Batch of 3 targets.
Target 1
Amino acid sequence: MTLIDREGLAALSTRRLGGELGCEAMSIYHHFPGKAYLMDALVDLMLKEAPVPPGDKRDWLDRLRRAAHGFRAMALKHPKFFPFFAVHRLNTPSGVAYLNGIVGILREAGFSDWDAAAHFRQIGYYLTGAALDEVAGYARGPSAAEPISDETIAANFRHLAAAAPYFQAQYFQVTFETGLEILLDGIARAHQKPAGS
């Protein structure tokens, strides 16, 4: 992970990893049968940095909040690996335990199985999208088009020009916090509705 954090995912090969560790590349295969297994292990390593917060059904909202902050912190700590993590199936024992833990927060709080699944996905959509935007960013995404100048945007796209200063990194934290609270508030309000309403 140190190699990826420093040089990006493209730098990771068994030969390069062997060099970093001071061993032959082939010796890595004694621990990981192939690179895909190594990638699974890296995903598991990431998950250790975002554990499911402990607690009980009374503090479910705070547990979800802490889980969300932990997930974002994990992504920001490893921005060069997170785009891979974001689309990787969490199908290892660690991954399944993490999924079970987050869904469990909702089920233990009394959400129906349907609501627990739906809210789990909604939270996942928000966290993955927010983290991808912060680590890989729309502004850094691929495009063959020549960027439109700031002057042209100011002259012809006034709404975008007015909002543009608030797309800067110094506003990421407050934007994340606001969006998360809106999402969690909506989930909490839906949970308080009487049956049949």
Note: Residues 113-135 form the longest helix (23 residues).
Target 2
Amino acid sequence: MPQTHRLAARRTLSLRELSSEPFLVFSPEHTLRIIFDRVCADASFLPNIAFEGMDVATLRGLIAAGLGIGLLPPAPARFAGVVEIKLSPARPIRPLGIGWIADRYVPATAVEFRKFVVSKFHGE
């Protein structure tokens, strides 16, 4: 949320506390938007969507400008004008996948990485 937001000093927030806020979100076809819609439905509210976009930097910039709040993955570095607050009691989970083409050359490092990922996360 913008660092000037009335709730910006909080360490955690529930999604229900944010239900009346204007949200800046990804476009409907984006995987993170699908997760956002499900999380809002689970919290039993229909979000007030102020803007839809496809670029996380654009969304963060609009949040910094005070145009709304967002539910985004953590930023790799601090984004000026934006504070990140954890959701409580639970954070949404973003599924990730790994794939490869069976009959194509795969470098040894990629093979080892694939083995690691499959052994660590297979079936989760």
Note: Helices lie at 31-42, 56-64, 108-121.
Target 3
Amino acid sequence: MIERALAMSETLDDPGARSDVLNTAAFAAFLRGEDWRPYLEETLRIALESGAHAEAGRGYVNTLAYCSADFAFAESDRWWPEAIAYCEDNDLMTFATCLRGVRALTLLDECRWDEAISVTEPVFANNASPLNLLTSQVALGLIRARRGEPAATELLTAAAAAADGIAETNWIALTRLACAEDRWLDGDDTGARREIDRVRATLTLTDPDDDAPTAVWERRLQGTSRAFTEPQEPWAAWLRGDCQEAATRWDTLGCAYHAALALYDSGREEHLRDAVTRFDALGASAAAGRARQRMKDLGHRAVPTGARPSTREHPLGLTRRENEVLLLLCEGLTNDEIAVKLVVSPRTVDHHVSAVLTKVGVGSRGAAAAQARQLGLVPATT
């Protein structure tokens, strides 16, 4: 059917219609797990050249949404400035609001939480419709919940109510999974299970992207999952109980919070200790509290405490050792060289470097060093 529509659209002297069909073809390819990019690239080319503003706006939103679903963060970074500028310059405010919500969810996964908050500010400043407001509510609500800040539940409850009114599976899953996490972070496992059950009741075999995270929550809350199909990685490793492998894969994708959650699910002392360190580095105090409590419940000794006063006072929230590592990164030292300098193992340095990059909110050693210099943390002689 899609192929027929594409063929017919080629015979029409209507760029808007052609662009619209290509948008739909991209959606179909996305659902099939195929490459949707060629369709959307052609969509945008035609729409931009012909001035088909609505079709271009839809194309930008879909591009950012599919990048987010695929954890294609570099692509999202590349498209975002162009997309939001086009929509706002052409007064496509509905699309601009959608873009901001999608972008905020992407930044949420990347743990660029302060950026996500900044992206959503114009959404809350305007009278967006419940549907357009929903994604921004989820992003901001989850950030607040993970940080243990107030008003998270109100945001997520409002988003869930809007999704219930729409009665579409993807929106219900997005909001109810967020509500489940909020309740879990607050220590209400029973309430979290109710939210997950509501999601499961709406899912079918045609919803694999929502089935996988739902199954992970089921496993966390009740020990077993009701997944319909074998999910893709890293979800698959997570569900089969290979939590270290799942964490490694999430780290590779750039999803530090998911990686810490996978380690939490392991239950092994060294993994829980690592999870606490990671949550603390992210500023996810509520999640760190759950991990510490689990260590106590399992009888693990020497449960790590929260950040020391010196760490709280550091401009980037770094511990004394992490600050030492940052200064050595500024000198251009490798991890092996840092290990020799500090008389620790290279693996320990790996963890410290990862924590530094997470706290600084950057993806490279060079960017971390640049931020340190900008803040005046590097001695003049370095």
Note: The chain has a mean pLDDT of 89.
